[in-house]
């Protein structure tokens, strides 16, 4: 939607209007919306309670199903067990059902803003059930509960719980998606100001039909007097000084500020408080690691900063290192014949050394020597110096082209992983001479060095390797650091075998 520049002066245009600017009809509409919001506030909480109750029923049903399968089906002949009555297992079932609900709640599922996010809920349910299964078995064995619990029963309980919970949640999600219920669950959201962060958030929410926000449009807080083109594909609904009228006309529940001066920010926050509208601020100052933002108190003063990332946790670092050691050990054993064969092929084609050591930047910018099977001719960079490998690179050996396509030249890096210089998964290490100026030219480049470099990474499975868009690679690396999990590492390792775009 296009618009023309305002006629009033800049100073007048930037003043947030007063409630008197709202006509009687719009004011009545705003009051009606406020009354409806207060009346409907209980509805989302009611559906959260229904979700909890439904999950609890499924947990109890899973316990009974697991008992029947273990002691009254063909599985009764599997393993050693004593004949148990349902009454004897009631204590185990009760404890298991309650702790399962606690595990699900720990995953943050019981919140009104996520009720419509079926896929997100399904992934969290799977994680909660897996953690609960292992923890419940360990707890019951450690406490030596009587009667002794069957490990097969616990495994069956976890499997039944996952199936029943997913089935129930799919049905519940369809129930919630009726127009009347979505209206009470979704919040009518207005953007104030506009920038890249607002554009990115708008596009993300527009593509996700399960989000809890109904997007209205944006309010111009600048007048676009700098001849900048407004976003034509985003509904424009007014100016900052008309914010009262906009709020009333569009029945706004939430305001997200993307770009606004400090003075008007305070005024708008006060307005939202008076009108009982949720006030959100897109932290444009923080261009990276937004998921790690947290508010802490220093000497009695609240300070907002980035201090929490998944790999800042000692337990997460230990878990990742354990996966690296196990994976690298198995990888070296299984790849030994491959290294021997292709090493011989390299020697046969060009002579000289089989392995190639290359200086790379590691975690926190500490350099190390990466090990590869040589895929280039001897002294390939003697005349040209360091440069990216490109498609049909004439410096490659014949066997080198094949190795690079299938990532075989990277296999010896399992040794770098065992030494602790690299990880199985992480941002790919770069050559110092190629990236000396990148930290000055590319925003947030050095932020990727907060973690160990990896043999493969999220950018690589996305096809961003070699002579490709480095800015996009950095975005992928930062996304990985913000969203790290062991499951994500396993997923990336699996995709590495199938995603070979730009592998040359």
From TrEMBL:
Transmembrane segments: 46-69, 89-109, 121-143, 149-172, 284-305, 325-348
Annotated membrane topology: Multi-pass membrane protein
InterPro entries found in the cross-reference section: Bact_transf, EPS_sugar_tfrase
Domain Bacterial sugar transferase stretches: 320-498
UniProt keyword annotations, A-Z: Membrane, Transferase, Transmembrane, Transmembrane helix
Subcellular location: Membrane
Cross-referenced Pfam families: Bac_transf, CoA_binding_3
Family: Belongs to the bacterial sugar transferase family.
NCBIfam families: EPS_sugtrans (TIGR03025)
Protein name: Undecaprenyl-phosphate glucose phosphotransferase
Organism the protein comes from: Prosthecobacter algae
Lineage: Bacteria, Pseudomonadati, Verrucomicrobiota, Verrucomicrobiia, Verrucomicrobiales
């Amino acid at each position: 939607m296009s618009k023309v520049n305002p006629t009033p002066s800049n100073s007048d245009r930037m003043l947030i209007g007063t409630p008197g600017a709202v006509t009687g009809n719009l004011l009545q509409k705003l009051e009606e919306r406020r009354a409806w919001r207060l009346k409907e506030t209980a509805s989302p909480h009611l559906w959260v309670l229904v979700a909890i109750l439904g999950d609890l029923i499924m947990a109890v049903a899973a316990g009974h199903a697991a008992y029947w399968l273990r002691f009254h089906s063909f599985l009764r002949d599997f393993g050693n067990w004593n004949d148990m009555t349902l009454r004897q297992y009631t204590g185990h079932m009760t404890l298991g059902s309650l702790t399962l609900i606690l595990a699900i709640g720990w995953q943050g599922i019981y919140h009104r803003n996520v009720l419509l996010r079926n896929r997100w809920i399904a992934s969290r349910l799977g994680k909660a059930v897996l953690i609960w299964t292992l923890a419940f078995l360990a707890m019951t064995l450690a406490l030596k509960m009587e009667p002794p619990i069957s490990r097969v029963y616990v495994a069956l309980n976890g499997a039944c719980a996952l199936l029943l919970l997913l089935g129930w949640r799919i049905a519940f999600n369809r129930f919630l998606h009726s127009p009347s219920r979505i209206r009470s669950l979704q919040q009518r959201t207005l953007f104030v100001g506009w920038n890249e962060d607002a554009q990115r958030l708008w596009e993300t929410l527009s593509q996700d039909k399960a989000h809890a926000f109904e997007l209205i449009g944006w309010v111009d807080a600048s007048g676009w007097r700098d001849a900048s083109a407004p976003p034509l594909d985003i509904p424009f609904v007014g100016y900052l000084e008309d914010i009262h009228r906009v709020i009333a006309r569009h029945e706004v529940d939430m305001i997200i500020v993307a770009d606004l001066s400090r003075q008007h920010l305070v005024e708008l926050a006060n307005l939202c408080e008076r009108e009982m509208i949720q006030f959100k601020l897109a932290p444009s100052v923080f261009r990276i690691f937004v998921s790690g933002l947290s508010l802490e108190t220093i000497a009695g003063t609240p300070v907002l900063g980035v201090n929490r990332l998944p790999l800042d946790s000692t337990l997460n670092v230990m878990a990742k290192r354990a996966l690296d050691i196990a994976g690298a050990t198995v990888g070296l054993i299984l790849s030994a014949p491959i290294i021997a064969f292709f090493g011989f092929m390299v020697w046969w084609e060009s002579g000289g050394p089989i392995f190639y050591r290359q200086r790379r930047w590691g975690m926190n910018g500490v350099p190390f020597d990466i090990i590869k099977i040589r895929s280039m001719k001897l002294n390939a960079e003697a005349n040209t110096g360091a440069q990216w490998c490109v498609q049909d690179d004439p410096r490659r050996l014949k066997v080198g082209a094949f190795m690079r396509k299938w990532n075989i030249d990277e296999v010896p890096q399992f040794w770098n992983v065992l030494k602790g210089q690299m990880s199985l998964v992480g941002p790919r290490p770069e050559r110092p001479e190629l990236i000396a100026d990148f930290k000055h030219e590319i925003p947030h480049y050095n932020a990727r060095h907060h973690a160990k470099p990896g043999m493969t990474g999220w950018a690589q499975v996305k096809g961003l390797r070699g002579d490709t868009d480095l800015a996009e690679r950095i975005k992928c690396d930062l996304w990985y650091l913000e969203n790290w999990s062991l499951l994500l590492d396993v997923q990336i390792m699996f995709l590495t075998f199938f995603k070979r775009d730009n592998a040359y």
